[in-house]
Amino acid sequence: MSEKTQLAASARSNRKVESKEEKPRVRLSQQAIVATAADLFARKGFGATSLDDIGEALGVTKGALYYHIKNKEEILKLIFMTVLAVSEEPLRQIVRSEASPAEKLNRAIAHHAAVAADRSPAMTVFYREDVHLTGPFAREIAARKKAYERLFEGIIEEGIRTGQFRQDIDPKIAAFGILGMCNWLSEWYRPGRAYNPQQIAAFFSRLAESGLVRPENSPL
Amino acid sequence: MSEKTQLAASARSNRKVESKEEKPRVRLSQQAIVATAADLFARKGFGATSLDDIGEALGVTKGALYYHIKNKEEILKLIFMTVLAVSEEPLRQIVRSEASPAEKLNRAIAHHAAVAADRSPAMTVFYREDVHLTGPFAREIAARKKAYERLFEGIIEEGIRTGQFRQDIDPKIAAFGILGMCNWLSEWYRPGRAYNPQQIAAFFSRLAESGLVRPENSPL
DNA sequence: TGAAAATTCTACCGCCTGTTCAAATGCACC
DNA sequence: GGTGCATTTGAACAGGCGGTAGAATTTTCA
What we know:
Oligomer: homodimer
CATH class of the largest domain in chain A: Mainly Alpha
CATH topology of the largest domain in chain A: Tetracycline Repressor, domain 2
Structural class of chain A: mainly alpha
Radius of gyration of chain A: 22 Å
Low-confidence stretches of chain A: 1-24
Protein backbone atom coordinates (compact mmCIF):
# COMPACT_ATOMS: atom_id res chain seq x y z
CA MET A 1 0.00 0.00 0.00
CA SER A 2 2.98 2.32 0.45
CA GLU A 3 4.82 1.05 -2.59
CA LYS A 4 3.33 3.58 -4.92
CA THR A 5 4.30 6.63 -2.92
CA GLN A 6 7.69 5.05 -2.37
CA LEU A 7 8.12 4.66 -6.07
CA ALA A 8 7.03 8.20 -6.79
CA ALA A 9 9.36 9.57 -4.17
CA SER A 10 12.41 7.75 -5.44
CA ALA A 11 11.60 8.75 -9.01
CA ARG A 12 11.55 12.37 -7.97
CA SER A 13 14.90 12.25 -6.18
CA ASN A 14 16.77 9.75 -8.33
CA ARG A 15 19.82 11.94 -8.79
CA LYS A 16 20.28 12.78 -5.15
CA VAL A 17 23.15 11.20 -3.28
CA GLU A 18 21.21 8.65 -1.32
CA SER A 19 18.35 9.85 0.74
CA LYS A 20 15.38 7.60 -0.02
CA GLU A 21 14.09 6.33 3.28
CA GLU A 22 15.27 8.30 6.26
CA LYS A 23 17.31 5.67 7.99
CA PRO A 24 17.85 6.63 11.60
CA ARG A 25 21.42 7.62 12.17
CA VAL A 26 21.38 6.28 15.72
CA ARG A 27 23.45 3.21 16.34
CA LEU A 28 21.55 0.00 16.73
CA SER A 29 20.96 -0.93 20.33
CA GLN A 30 18.44 -2.65 22.49
CA GLN A 31 17.01 0.72 23.44
CA ALA A 32 16.67 1.86 19.82
CA ILE A 33 14.98 -1.40 18.89
CA VAL A 34 12.54 -1.11 21.77
CA ALA A 35 11.67 2.50 20.94
CA THR A 36 11.08 1.79 17.25
CA ALA A 37 9.14 -1.37 18.02
CA ALA A 38 6.92 0.49 20.48
CA ASP A 39 6.05 2.90 17.71
CA LEU A 40 5.21 0.15 15.25
CA PHE A 41 3.35 -1.98 17.79
CA ALA A 42 1.22 1.02 18.72
CA ARG A 43 0.38 1.73 15.08
CA LYS A 44 -0.08 -1.76 13.67
CA GLY A 45 -0.36 -4.05 16.67
CA PHE A 46 2.12 -6.58 18.03
CA GLY A 47 0.89 -9.48 15.93
CA ALA A 48 0.82 -7.55 12.69
CA THR A 49 4.32 -6.13 13.12
CA SER A 50 7.01 -8.45 11.83
CA LEU A 51 10.65 -8.42 12.77
CA ASP A 52 11.29 -7.50 9.15
CA ASP A 53 9.19 -4.37 9.71
CA ILE A 54 11.21 -3.41 12.76
CA GLY A 55 14.46 -4.07 10.95
CA GLU A 56 13.38 -2.02 7.97
CA ALA A 57 12.37 0.89 10.16
CA LEU A 58 15.85 0.81 11.66
CA GLY A 59 17.59 0.41 8.31
CA VAL A 60 18.82 -3.06 9.16
CA THR A 61 18.01 -6.69 8.41
CA LYS A 62 16.10 -8.65 10.97
CA GLY A 63 19.08 -10.90 11.57
CA ALA A 64 20.89 -7.99 13.13
CA LEU A 65 18.16 -7.56 15.70
CA TYR A 66 18.96 -10.94 17.20
CA TYR A 67 22.36 -9.75 18.29
CA HIS A 68 20.63 -7.32 20.68
CA ILE A 69 17.49 -9.16 21.70
CA LYS A 70 16.56 -12.73 22.51
CA ASN A 71 13.30 -12.88 20.57
CA LYS A 72 10.22 -10.90 19.65
CA GLU A 73 8.50 -11.31 22.97
CA GLU A 74 11.49 -9.88 24.77
CA ILE A 75 10.98 -6.62 22.91
CA LEU A 76 7.42 -6.53 24.20
CA LYS A 77 8.62 -7.30 27.71
CA LEU A 78 11.11 -4.45 27.56
CA ILE A 79 8.38 -2.04 26.50
CA PHE A 80 6.35 -3.04 29.53
CA MET A 81 9.37 -2.62 31.76
CA THR A 82 10.04 0.92 30.54
CA VAL A 83 6.46 1.96 31.20
CA LEU A 84 6.58 0.59 34.72
CA ALA A 85 10.01 2.11 35.26
CA VAL A 86 8.73 5.64 34.69
CA SER A 87 5.35 5.08 36.37
CA GLU A 88 5.71 3.24 39.64
CA GLU A 89 8.33 4.98 41.71
CA PRO A 90 7.11 8.59 41.23
CA LEU A 91 3.60 7.56 42.22
CA ARG A 92 4.87 5.78 45.33
CA GLN A 93 6.71 8.94 46.32
CA ILE A 94 3.55 10.98 45.92
CA VAL A 95 1.63 8.53 48.10
CA ARG A 96 4.37 8.58 50.75
CA SER A 97 4.50 12.38 50.85
CA GLU A 98 2.97 14.55 53.54
CA ALA A 99 0.54 16.38 51.25
CA SER A 100 -3.21 16.36 51.73
CA PRO A 101 -5.26 13.70 49.90
CA ALA A 102 -6.57 16.29 47.44
CA GLU A 103 -3.06 17.50 46.74
CA LYS A 104 -1.80 13.93 46.42
CA LEU A 105 -4.56 13.19 43.95
CA ASN A 106 -3.63 16.29 41.98
CA ARG A 107 -0.04 15.21 41.73
CA ALA A 108 -0.95 11.60 40.96
CA ILE A 109 -3.19 12.67 38.10
CA ALA A 110 -0.54 15.05 36.79
CA HIS A 111 2.05 12.29 36.95
CA HIS A 112 -0.06 9.64 35.32
CA ALA A 113 -1.39 11.93 32.60
CA ALA A 114 2.13 13.07 31.79
CA VAL A 115 3.31 9.48 31.43
CA ALA A 116 0.30 8.54 29.29
CA ALA A 117 0.86 11.52 27.01
CA ASP A 118 4.65 11.64 26.83
CA ARG A 119 5.14 7.90 26.36
CA SER A 120 2.05 7.47 24.27
CA PRO A 121 3.30 4.67 21.98
CA ALA A 122 4.68 2.58 24.82
CA MET A 123 1.57 3.33 26.86
CA THR A 124 -0.70 2.25 24.03
CA VAL A 125 1.19 -1.02 23.79
CA PHE A 126 1.06 -1.38 27.56
CA TYR A 127 -2.71 -1.38 27.57
CA ARG A 128 -3.48 -2.94 24.18
CA GLU A 129 -0.98 -5.74 23.81
CA ASP A 130 -0.86 -7.23 27.27
CA VAL A 131 -2.70 -10.27 25.91
CA HIS A 132 0.48 -11.30 24.10
CA LEU A 133 2.46 -11.72 27.29
CA THR A 134 2.72 -15.25 28.57
CA GLY A 135 3.89 -17.17 31.59
CA PRO A 136 5.18 -15.69 34.83
CA PHE A 137 5.94 -12.33 33.28
CA ALA A 138 2.29 -11.88 32.31
CA ARG A 139 1.30 -12.55 35.89
CA GLU A 140 3.91 -10.16 37.21
CA ILE A 141 2.70 -7.36 34.98
CA ALA A 142 -0.91 -7.98 35.98
CA ALA A 143 0.06 -7.85 39.64
CA ARG A 144 2.05 -4.63 39.31
CA LYS A 145 -0.75 -3.06 37.28
CA LYS A 146 -3.14 -3.90 40.08
CA ALA A 147 -0.76 -2.56 42.70
CA TYR A 148 -0.54 0.69 40.76
CA GLU A 149 -4.31 1.00 40.75
CA ARG A 150 -4.36 0.33 44.47
CA LEU A 151 -2.13 3.32 45.06
CA PHE A 152 -4.73 5.58 43.47
CA GLU A 153 -7.42 3.83 45.45
CA GLY A 154 -5.48 4.41 48.63
CA ILE A 155 -5.29 8.14 48.06
CA ILE A 156 -9.04 8.32 47.61
CA GLU A 157 -9.66 6.16 50.67
CA GLU A 158 -7.49 8.49 52.68
CA GLY A 159 -9.47 11.47 51.43
CA ILE A 160 -12.73 9.87 52.46
CA ARG A 161 -11.37 8.91 55.86
CA THR A 162 -10.14 12.40 56.62
CA GLY A 163 -13.45 13.87 55.50
CA GLN A 164 -11.92 15.82 52.64
CA PHE A 165 -13.72 13.72 50.01
CA ARG A 166 -17.38 12.84 49.88
CA GLN A 167 -18.54 9.76 51.74
CA ASP A 168 -20.90 8.50 49.06
CA ILE A 169 -18.26 7.27 46.65
CA ASP A 170 -16.58 3.92 46.11
CA PRO A 171 -12.79 4.35 46.12
CA LYS A 172 -12.23 1.50 43.69
CA ILE A 173 -14.65 2.78 41.08
CA ALA A 174 -13.42 6.33 41.48
CA ALA A 175 -9.85 5.14 41.01
CA PHE A 176 -10.78 3.21 37.87
CA GLY A 177 -12.66 6.24 36.55
CA ILE A 178 -9.73 8.58 37.04
CA LEU A 179 -7.23 6.07 35.67
CA GLY A 180 -9.44 5.47 32.65
CA MET A 181 -9.66 9.19 32.03
CA CYS A 182 -5.87 9.45 32.03
CA ASN A 183 -5.13 6.21 30.20
CA TRP A 184 -7.42 7.28 27.40
CA LEU A 185 -4.98 10.09 26.75
CA SER A 186 -2.69 7.68 24.94
CA GLU A 187 -5.53 7.03 22.49
CA TRP A 188 -6.20 10.61 21.48
CA TYR A 189 -3.37 12.85 22.63
CA ARG A 190 -0.95 14.01 19.99
CA PRO A 191 1.91 16.38 20.85
CA GLY A 192 1.84 19.88 19.49
CA ARG A 193 -1.89 20.40 19.72
CA ALA A 194 -3.76 23.02 21.69
CA TYR A 195 -2.87 21.73 25.14
CA ASN A 196 0.20 20.13 26.64
CA PRO A 197 0.06 17.22 29.10
CA GLN A 198 0.40 19.50 32.11
CA GLN A 199 -2.60 21.55 31.08
CA ILE A 200 -4.67 18.48 30.40
CA ALA A 201 -3.65 17.00 33.72
CA ALA A 202 -4.62 20.22 35.49
CA PHE A 203 -7.99 20.08 33.83
CA PHE A 204 -8.52 16.43 34.76
CA SER A 205 -7.67 17.31 38.36
CA ARG A 206 -10.29 20.02 38.38
CA LEU A 207 -12.82 17.63 36.86
CA ALA A 208 -12.08 14.94 39.44
CA GLU A 209 -12.19 17.43 42.28
CA SER A 210 -15.18 19.58 41.50
CA GLY A 211 -16.95 18.21 38.44
CA LEU A 212 -18.57 20.11 35.63
CA VAL A 213 -21.59 21.71 37.25
CA ARG A 214 -21.24 25.33 38.23
CA PRO A 215 -21.97 25.86 41.92
CA GLU A 216 -25.15 27.85 42.50
CA ASN A 217 -23.45 30.81 44.12
CA SER A 218 -20.44 30.99 41.84
CA PRO A 219 -19.97 33.98 39.54
CA LEU A 220 -20.49 33.54 35.87
CA MET B 1 -3.05 -32.45 19.22
CA SER B 2 -6.61 -33.39 20.17
CA GLU B 3 -6.68 -36.58 18.10
CA LYS B 4 -5.47 -38.79 20.91
CA THR B 5 -8.03 -37.68 23.43
CA GLN B 6 -10.64 -37.89 20.74
CA LEU B 7 -9.67 -41.49 20.04
CA ALA B 8 -9.63 -42.39 23.70
CA ALA B 9 -12.97 -40.75 24.31
CA SER B 10 -14.68 -42.48 21.43
CA ALA B 11 -13.22 -45.80 22.55
CA ARG B 12 -14.52 -45.27 26.04
CA SER B 13 -18.00 -44.18 25.05
CA ASN B 14 -18.45 -46.12 21.86
CA ARG B 15 -21.85 -47.38 22.88
CA LYS B 16 -23.04 -44.10 24.36
CA VAL B 17 -25.07 -41.70 22.32
CA GLU B 18 -22.41 -39.03 21.94
CA SER B 19 -21.43 -36.55 24.67
CA LYS B 20 -17.65 -35.82 24.55
CA GLU B 21 -16.70 -32.15 24.29
CA GLU B 22 -19.33 -29.58 25.11
CA LYS B 23 -19.98 -28.34 21.64
CA PRO B 24 -22.25 -25.34 21.64
CA ARG B 25 -25.73 -26.43 20.71
CA VAL B 26 -26.45 -23.23 18.80
CA ARG B 27 -26.60 -23.59 15.07
CA LEU B 28 -23.75 -22.10 13.16
CA SER B 29 -24.55 -18.66 11.83
CA GLN B 30 -22.89 -15.38 11.08
CA GLN B 31 -24.11 -14.05 14.39
CA ALA B 32 -22.75 -17.01 16.36
CA ILE B 33 -19.40 -16.71 14.64
CA VAL B 34 -19.18 -13.00 15.39
CA ALA B 35 -20.09 -13.47 19.06
CA THR B 36 -17.57 -16.25 19.58
CA ALA B 37 -14.88 -14.40 17.67
CA ALA B 38 -15.44 -11.25 19.73
CA ASP B 39 -14.80 -13.27 22.84
CA LEU B 40 -11.60 -14.77 21.48
CA PHE B 41 -10.34 -11.53 19.95
CA ALA B 42 -10.85 -9.78 23.29
CA ARG B 43 -8.93 -12.46 25.15
CA LYS B 44 -6.09 -13.23 22.76
CA GLY B 45 -6.09 -10.42 20.23
CA PHE B 46 -7.16 -10.42 16.59
CA GLY B 47 -3.76 -11.40 15.20
CA ALA B 48 -3.21 -14.22 17.67
CA THR B 49 -6.63 -15.76 17.11
CA SER B 50 -6.69 -18.15 14.17
CA LEU B 51 -9.72 -19.27 12.26
CA ASP B 52 -8.95 -22.72 13.61
CA ASP B 53 -9.42 -21.32 17.11
CA ILE B 54 -12.78 -19.84 16.19
CA GLY B 55 -13.87 -23.03 14.49
CA GLU B 56 -12.80 -25.16 17.45
CA ALA B 57 -14.69 -22.92 19.87
CA LEU B 58 -17.79 -23.47 17.75
CA GLY B 59 -17.22 -27.20 17.33
CA VAL B 60 -16.67 -26.90 13.60
CA THR B 61 -13.84 -26.96 11.07
CA LYS B 62 -12.58 -23.63 9.87
CA GLY B 63 -13.74 -24.42 6.36
CA ALA B 64 -17.33 -24.25 7.55
CA LEU B 65 -16.86 -20.65 8.62
CA TYR B 66 -16.37 -19.60 5.03
CA TYR B 67 -19.91 -20.54 4.18
CA HIS B 68 -21.11 -17.75 6.50
CA ILE B 69 -18.40 -15.12 6.22
CA LYS B 70 -16.25 -13.73 3.44
CA ASN B 71 -12.96 -13.71 5.31
CA LYS B 72 -11.38 -13.03 8.67
CA GLU B 73 -11.50 -9.27 8.38
CA GLU B 74 -15.24 -9.38 7.75
CA ILE B 75 -15.69 -10.90 11.20
CA LEU B 76 -13.83 -7.95 12.65
CA LYS B 77 -15.93 -5.54 10.61
CA LEU B 78 -19.13 -7.14 11.86
CA ILE B 79 -17.96 -6.74 15.45
CA PHE B 80 -17.42 -3.04 14.84
CA MET B 81 -20.84 -2.75 13.24
CA THR B 82 -22.59 -4.33 16.21
CA VAL B 83 -20.91 -1.94 18.62
CA LEU B 84 -21.94 1.05 16.56
CA ALA B 85 -25.43 -0.36 16.10
CA VAL B 86 -26.10 -0.34 19.84
CA SER B 87 -24.19 2.88 20.54
CA GLU B 88 -25.02 5.57 18.04
CA GLU B 89 -28.78 5.86 17.79
CA PRO B 90 -29.58 5.92 21.51
CA LEU B 91 -27.02 8.65 22.05
CA ARG B 92 -28.46 10.71 19.21
CA GLN B 93 -31.88 10.44 20.78
CA ILE B 94 -30.51 11.65 24.10
CA VAL B 95 -28.91 14.63 22.38
CA ARG B 96 -32.12 15.45 20.51
CA SER B 97 -34.25 15.26 23.65
CA GLU B 98 -35.58 18.25 25.57
CA ALA B 99 -33.72 17.49 28.80
CA SER B 100 -31.28 19.88 30.42
CA PRO B 101 -27.59 19.53 29.57
CA ALA B 102 -26.85 18.01 32.98
CA GLU B 103 -29.64 15.50 32.52
CA LYS B 104 -28.51 14.75 28.98
CA LEU B 105 -25.01 14.12 30.24
CA ASN B 106 -26.37 11.81 32.91
CA ARG B 107 -28.22 9.76 30.37
CA ALA B 108 -25.33 9.77 27.93
CA ILE B 109 -22.95 8.47 30.56
CA ALA B 110 -25.46 5.85 31.65
CA HIS B 111 -25.93 4.75 28.06
CA HIS B 112 -22.27 4.61 27.20
CA ALA B 113 -21.25 2.89 30.42
CA ALA B 114 -23.97 0.30 29.93
CA VAL B 115 -22.74 -0.45 26.41
CA ALA B 116 -19.12 -0.65 27.55
CA ALA B 117 -20.01 -3.03 30.36
CA ASP B 118 -22.67 -5.19 28.71
CA ARG B 119 -20.83 -5.65 25.44
CA SER B 120 -17.44 -5.80 27.03
CA PRO B 121 -15.76 -8.28 24.62
CA ALA B 122 -16.99 -6.47 21.52
CA MET B 123 -16.13 -3.14 23.11
CA THR B 124 -12.62 -4.30 23.96
CA VAL B 125 -12.13 -5.32 20.36
CA PHE B 126 -13.62 -2.03 19.20
CA TYR B 127 -10.94 -0.05 20.97
CA ARG B 128 -7.99 -2.44 20.84
CA GLU B 129 -8.11 -3.91 17.38
CA ASP B 130 -9.04 -0.96 15.21
CA VAL B 131 -5.51 -0.99 13.83
CA HIS B 132 -6.36 -4.14 11.88
CA LEU B 133 -9.03 -2.45 9.83
CA THR B 134 -7.96 -1.29 6.40
CA GLY B 135 -9.18 0.76 3.51
CA PRO B 136 -12.40 2.75 3.39
CA PHE B 137 -14.00 0.85 6.25
CA ALA B 138 -11.19 1.91 8.58
CA ARG B 139 -11.82 5.52 7.63
CA GLU B 140 -15.56 5.15 8.10
CA ILE B 141 -15.11 3.73 11.59
CA ALA B 142 -12.70 6.51 12.51
CA ALA B 143 -15.18 9.10 11.28
CA ARG B 144 -18.12 7.61 13.16
CA LYS B 145 -16.01 7.28 16.28
CA LYS B 146 -15.19 10.95 16.03
CA ALA B 147 -18.82 11.87 15.40
CA TYR B 148 -19.78 9.93 18.52
CA GLU B 149 -17.25 11.89 20.55
CA ARG B 150 -18.60 15.11 19.11
CA LEU B 151 -22.05 14.29 20.46
CA PHE B 152 -20.66 14.19 23.97
CA GLU B 153 -18.75 17.37 23.28
CA GLY B 154 -21.96 19.03 22.09
CA ILE B 155 -23.77 18.25 25.32
CA ILE B 156 -21.00 19.84 27.33
CA GLU B 157 -20.86 22.86 25.06
CA GLU B 158 -24.57 23.32 25.52
CA GLY B 159 -24.15 23.15 29.29
CA ILE B 160 -21.49 25.81 29.20
CA ARG B 161 -23.55 28.02 26.92
CA THR B 162 -26.61 27.86 29.13
CA GLY B 163 -24.51 28.57 32.20
CA GLN B 164 -25.28 25.25 33.81
CA PHE B 165 -21.68 24.06 33.51
CA ARG B 166 -18.57 25.93 34.52
CA GLN B 167 -16.99 28.26 32.02
CA ASP B 168 -13.38 27.29 32.69
CA ILE B 169 -13.47 23.93 30.99
CA ASP B 170 -12.65 22.76 27.50
CA PRO B 171 -15.55 20.75 26.08
CA LYS B 172 -13.32 18.53 23.99
CA ILE B 173 -11.03 17.52 26.83
CA ALA B 174 -13.96 17.03 29.18
CA ALA B 175 -15.64 14.80 26.60
CA PHE B 176 -12.49 12.74 26.17
CA GLY B 177 -12.13 12.46 29.92
CA ILE B 178 -15.66 11.21 30.42
CA LEU B 179 -15.47 8.86 27.46
CA GLY B 180 -12.16 7.49 28.71
CA MET B 181 -13.68 6.89 32.11
CA CYS B 182 -16.51 4.88 30.54
CA ASN B 183 -14.46 3.10 27.90
CA TRP B 184 -12.09 1.87 30.55
CA LEU B 185 -14.98 -0.10 31.96
CA SER B 186 -14.50 -2.74 29.29
CA GLU B 187 -10.99 -3.30 30.65
CA TRP B 188 -11.91 -3.98 34.23
CA TYR B 189 -15.63 -4.59 34.54
CA ARG B 190 -16.75 -8.17 35.02
CA PRO B 191 -20.41 -9.03 35.49
CA GLY B 192 -21.59 -10.33 38.82
CA ARG B 193 -19.31 -8.20 40.95
CA ALA B 194 -20.28 -5.69 43.59
CA TYR B 195 -21.86 -3.16 41.23
CA ASN B 196 -23.90 -3.43 38.07
CA PRO B 197 -23.43 -1.12 35.07
CA GLN B 198 -26.29 1.16 36.13
CA GLN B 199 -24.75 1.75 39.53
CA ILE B 200 -21.35 2.42 38.05
CA ALA B 201 -22.85 4.79 35.52
CA ALA B 202 -24.67 6.63 38.28
CA PHE B 203 -21.43 7.01 40.14
CA PHE B 204 -19.58 8.25 37.08
CA SER B 205 -22.34 10.81 36.54
CA ARG B 206 -21.90 12.09 40.07
CA LEU B 207 -18.16 12.25 39.59
CA ALA B 208 -18.48 14.18 36.34
CA GLU B 209 -21.05 16.52 37.81
CA SER B 210 -19.70 17.34 41.24
CA GLY B 211 -16.30 15.73 41.65
CA LEU B 212 -14.81 14.09 44.68
CA VAL B 213 -14.30 16.95 47.07
CA ARG B 214 -16.93 17.44 49.73
CA PRO B 215 -18.44 20.92 49.62
CA GLU B 216 -17.52 23.01 52.66
CA ASN B 217 -21.05 23.34 53.96
CA SER B 218 -22.21 19.80 53.26
CA PRO B 219 -23.06 17.47 56.13
CA LEU B 220 -20.72 14.63 56.89
C1' DT C 1 48.53 -1.71 9.84
C1' DG C 2 46.64 -5.90 11.14
C1' DA C 3 44.42 -9.10 13.91
C1' DA C 4 40.72 -9.89 17.02
C1' DA C 5 36.25 -8.67 18.48
C1' DA C 6 31.80 -6.84 17.54
C1' DT C 7 28.20 -6.41 14.52
C1' DT C 8 25.42 -7.24 10.39
C1' DC C 9 24.10 -9.92 6.20
C1' DT C 10 22.41 -13.74 3.55
C1' DA C 11 20.13 -17.80 3.02
C1' DC C 12 17.51 -21.01 4.84
C1' DC C 13 14.21 -23.93 7.83
C1' DG C 14 9.91 -25.47 9.77
C1' DC C 15 5.68 -24.00 11.11
C1' DC C 16 1.38 -21.81 10.99
C1' DT C 17 -1.99 -18.98 8.68
C1' DG C 18 -5.91 -17.49 5.68
C1' DT C 19 -8.17 -19.04 1.82
C1' DT C 20 -10.06 -22.18 -1.75
C1' DC C 21 -12.64 -26.11 -3.55
C1' DA C 22 -14.33 -30.52 -4.79
C1' DA C 23 -16.38 -34.12 -2.35
C1' DA C 24 -19.16 -35.80 1.47
C1' DT C 25 -22.85 -35.27 4.50
C1' DG C 26 -27.17 -33.72 6.53
C1' DC C 27 -31.84 -32.19 5.90
C1' DA C 28 -36.41 -30.64 4.23
C1' DC C 29 -40.01 -31.72 1.44
C1' DC C 30 -42.53 -33.92 -2.43
C1' DG D 1 -37.87 -43.08 -0.09
C1' DG D 2 -35.57 -40.33 -2.82
C1' DT D 3 -34.40 -35.79 -4.89
C1' DG D 4 -32.17 -31.35 -4.43
C1' DC D 5 -30.53 -27.77 -1.75
C1' DA D 6 -27.84 -26.26 2.35
C1' DT D 7 -24.10 -27.05 5.03
C1' DT D 8 -19.76 -29.07 6.48
C1' DT D 9 -15.56 -31.57 5.72
C1' DG D 10 -10.80 -32.36 4.73
C1' DA D 11 -7.02 -31.74 2.04
C1' DA D 12 -4.20 -28.73 -0.33
C1' DC D 13 -1.96 -24.28 -1.34
C1' DA D 14 0.95 -20.29 -1.31
C1' DG D 15 2.79 -16.88 1.51
C1' DG D 16 4.66 -15.00 5.52
C1' DC D 17 6.36 -15.59 10.01
C1' DG D 18 9.93 -16.11 13.89
C1' DG D 19 14.13 -17.99 14.47
C1' DT D 20 19.06 -19.87 13.29
C1' DA D 21 23.83 -20.32 11.59
C1' DG D 22 27.76 -19.30 9.28
C1' DA D 23 29.84 -16.11 6.17
C1' DA D 24 30.89 -11.35 5.50
C1' DT D 25 31.71 -6.94 7.06
C1' DT D 26 32.85 -3.20 10.11
C1' DT D 27 34.88 -1.49 14.31
C1' DT D 28 38.23 -1.42 17.85
C1' DC D 29 42.65 -0.96 19.51
C1' DA D 30 47.40 -2.61 20.28
